[in-house]
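WARN no homologs supplied; continuing
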Amino acid sequence: MPQSLTPMLRAQLLEEIQQQRAAIYQYLQQAGYSNLLLKLDSHPLSHWPELLNQWLTPELEAKTRRLEAIQAALSQMDMGLYGLCCDCDSRIERHLLQQDPARQRCAHCDKLYSAAKKQA
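OK structure emitted
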């Protein structure tokens, strides 16, 4: 990944992670999960997906999975592995990362993954 693009994408991911945090918090407040909110407040954001796994509703599951994807992308940036496909280790196409900075698969592997998901 070109170094000039990475800071911009990191900024987008950091902004989105805060949006996801707020959306999860708001959802739990509206659903009346006050005990879970107290538990989340006492843990770093990086632990939230693990804590939320036992409470997943379809809406909360989507928010939690997105939070995990964003956290993974930020970790990959920190390790210098950002922009590599999780399946084949090829570079993820630049335009795809610009569309979704948390993307984990190149176009080819994403097609294979989507086809396998449909068959399952």
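Helices lie at 6-31, 34-41, 48-52, 58-79, 94-99, 107-119.
OK
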